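Q: Convert this sequence to structure tokens.
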Amino acid sequence: MAGLLCVLVACLCAVGCPEPSVSDSRVVGVDGAGVIRVSAAPAGYVNILPDELKLKLDAGEDLTVIDVRTATQYQAGHLPTAVSMPLATLPWAMNRLDRDRELVVYCQVGVTSVTACNILAAGGFSNVKNLVGGLSAWPYEVVTGSTSVVSL
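A:
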């Protein structure tokens, strides 16, 4: 029994442990090496790199950039054209967003924005992007002040 447990732990270390939300319908099967195959979860958003977003902003593309950090963090420095929509207010404030526009969401390091992207996707937004690395990965100009804060 201890040997089987060691094999199981070794397999999980090699392939990673599926997230708790993996349903049985996503488990594809076990291959000859005993590795569990899980189908990709349909993501409600895609990732975008800072350079890609910079090109879109410079080209004047029709998109909304959303900062989901706190209003204080937003005031200290944010991306040009970004609106402040803190994560805590997002489920209510998202009704103010245009569902037909591309949305690019960011936070400080790119973790909180994943939660925000999932909230937006669950709310019916289909063109949602997460800025990889958040503001910490943005090597370009930031703006200070609070000109576009969305509050309730």
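The mean pLDDT is 78.
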